[in-house]
Specification:
By secondary structure, the chain is α/β, with parallel strands linked by helices. The chain contains 38 helices and 24 strands. The protein is 47% helix and 10% strand. It binds a DNA duplex through helix 25, helix 27, strand 17, helix 32 and helix 33.
Length: 992
Amino acid sequence: MTSAPRAPGQGDHVFLVDGSSFIFRAYFQSINQDARYNYRSDRLPTGAVRLFCNVLHKMIKEGVMGKKPTHLAIIFDKSEDSFRKEIYPDYKGHRPPPPEELVPQFPLMRDAVRAFGLRPVEQIRYEADDLIATYCVMSVRAGADVTIVSADKDLMQLIQPGVVMFDPASGDQKAKGSRPERLIGEAEVFEKFGVTPDKVVDVQALAGDSTDNVPGVPGIGVKTAAQLINEYGDLESLLARAGEIKQEKRRENLIEHAGLARISRELVKLVTDVKLETPIEDLIAPGLDAKGAIAFLKAMEFSTLTRRIAEDSGLNLDDIPPDEKLKIPDSDFSVAPARPAAKAVIDTTGLPVPAGPADAGTPAALVESVKAGLIAIPFKTDSYETIGSLEALDAWVARAREQGYVAFDTETTSLDALQADLVGFSLALEPGHACYVPLRHRDKADLFGGGTMAGQVDPVEAVKRLRLILEDPSILKIGQNLKYDTLVMGEQAVKVAPYDDTMLMSYVVDGGRGNHGMDELSVRHLGHKPIAFSEVCGSGKSLIGFDQVPIERATAYAAEDADVTLRLWLLFKARVVAEGMTTIYETLERPLVTVLANMESRGIMIDRQILARLSGEFAQSAARLEAEIHELAGETFNVGSPKQLGDILFGKMGIPGGKKTATGQWATSAQILEDLADQGLELPRRIVNWRQLTKLKSTYTDALPTYVNPKSGRVHTSYSLAATTTGRLSSSEPNLQNIPVRTEEGRKIRTAFIAAPGCKLISADYSQIELRVLAHVADIPQLTKAFDEGVDIHAMTASEMFGVPVAGMDPLVRRRAKAINFGIIYGISAFGLANQLSIPREEAGAYIKKYFERFPGIRDYMDRMKAECRANGFVSTIFGRKMNFPAIESKNPSERSFVERQAINAPIQGSAADIIRRAMARMDQALVKAGLSAKMLLQVHDELVFEAPEEEVEATLPVVARVMEGAALPALALKVPLQVDARAAHNWEEAH
DNA sequence: CGGTTCACG
DNA sequence: GACGTACGTGAACCGA
């Protein structure tokens, strides 16, 4: 694989690859991908090397934009000792040390180059950029074309006729955050710097560069610099005539800091006459050394590329052993666990199929090392930076961009994101390294009460800078409960993408093992208790807004939160992958953040007049009932007090058969009162009715109007994504998942939920989704058949159990079968069923026995879940979401059987929850694709509520139904069809 | 702030 | 064999 050295000339094509900058980009690209690809089986980090090899191979094989190289050099930085440090000791002074996982990949990268039949080029005291510049200039002089493979802006100064830059596509094409390949010529340079390539250094000299710590002139950014250079021609002319500049501050700065500008220019200007140790003749491209490449790639365990090169070259893979020096020593390999299963396939609808069973063999070693690393860095509250200027903020923006990820947290005046004013925000780049940007802290001592505290950043400008981070597709935003911050930023018309949410990552790996709030996670995983919100803002009566908090205190609190979030992310990132939960997280959790934020910010319209009228009616009826109750009781008492009521009913009046609650009080639940009413007693009946009316009034008709947002005129609930043990959502403030529907009086409240003018509400709900899931997981042929044929499932159950025909069935018989069906889902017991149906326990027991005889698969399923939970401590949904039940180990039999019932119910409820989550994740795109403008407003476990323009309703209904019915696909083909009923009307009552 | 009750799936 | 009971939520109210 050797070719005779030959200098490039006319018609040749020289490729100069910036190996050093590529290493970093490949690394940050790799950590955003499925981590199982980022390590060799002995946990050697290789992700960046893999991406590097892919690009290297493509370049040698295909060239760039159809042109193949005659000369090719992969050029690296030799060490930190750039001659630039001699000019300016702080050059690149802010650079953090490279990530730990990247360090071993530096030498591997050079090994890769050699293995492919090339020579890595590097030279002491010079950066890769200088070598590239020198080779570039030599080649152009000799008449050759040059392609610089890099995206580094510092190389843009080299672009000229015959020289282009090429930014290769990053990583795997479908991977998140990957960029397409891109050619950079004069036009692109002009777009970035506002000048032609030969003037780029002058612009950089003025604007400086925070990532390399090039100072530039204070107060001058790229825009201003470009304008000045274009006006005055070049840097020296500008500095000579600086006195002419009109803007006072700018003029002074240019005069005062002319020296800085000249040093800066020297720092950014690339050296084009390096005395090369590797002569340009040696860059001659020899073609791929397939054998060497395969040996290397085998040792790295990059199977896809290994195979591809073998196929291309016609070599037999088995003939080539892995590179001896690099392969895993045999002794290690024998104990190394098997590699995890292949990654999920991406299907055409964009939702990945879940990976196989949990990667049980994956060592926890990585997680442990991450954890140890995190705890090793102490929390130092006073080390956090308070950002007091836009320049300081810009530096953080630049660092975030360079790093590719940043933890982010907003501080506001309210827990309600839609009523909150942004007071400040914090960022964290690495453990212990965080800042807070105060925007709107108010000085209470100010006599006029609204004075702004000193030392803050202009909020409008700061949000512009923040937008550069939050909307940058190449920067991963990391938050804890990011839905909140997404809503806050949404109010400023700023989007947040891409993102990770540590609360949700915790939920997928630790669902059921405690809550997922930040303070709790910090204590649990980092052994550190962060400053509590109440310590900063007080609580109850003494609660103050965050804008009243002194900035120093605010920094300690807010920056710490970002620091904690970043550390938690590093930990959960490793755990989510190690525990095989990536697909669950990415398909069932993460997409819901924006989906729910959108739903919450839309809100739903309510008719306050209807509610006010109902409140009046309920009040009147309740007052009448209350008078009658006092009359019947013979005394006035607080009807709303179960204690007083119990004393009257079972004490004073001496009604027999009273039951006590766990605390020894008389139980007065509706069930008990209704039993008494059935015995002909008037008082309990009236109390039941009174309770219903006062419940409807206080919880709904009185309360709902107080939730109307004054800005939108609508009601905005808040959904919690990580609150339940099963994967369901929960809704609060107000809870719109428990709006009455079961009674006629209650349903009236639904008529107050209305569509905006010109629109209708669409309600689409899954029919019997949990029973369908049960039919699937327990594999019950009769149930499956009944769902296939669309027959009445409860009637079928009754017919099967009691041997009566479906036609003309006694409603009582059907009701019993229905109760049993639901009981099964809840982990049935004879006691519970007896209670539900008000029948003797023996009778209930007999029904259950009969049921199990007819549907033996049900009993198998229940036993299976109990055993599984006992063995693993968790059960799973059909998509693989885990739900932990640590209390399954309990010695207390009653507690244990409680957990067993949970273990039976959870996969059913949880799978149904997963299905509707999948539907929600896809819904927006499906509607847009169909050209429809319907918007999702609410989710009620098995129902989605939309608002749609009247003229689009007919077209919307089938789209919604299709997405919901197909939500399990393609990950899973259920054994039963899913059925969705969708209707539209002007209010929720009629649509439902 | 825990207990009780009741609205929903 | 004991043990308390259907599964999952959130809100209002009482009373200490």
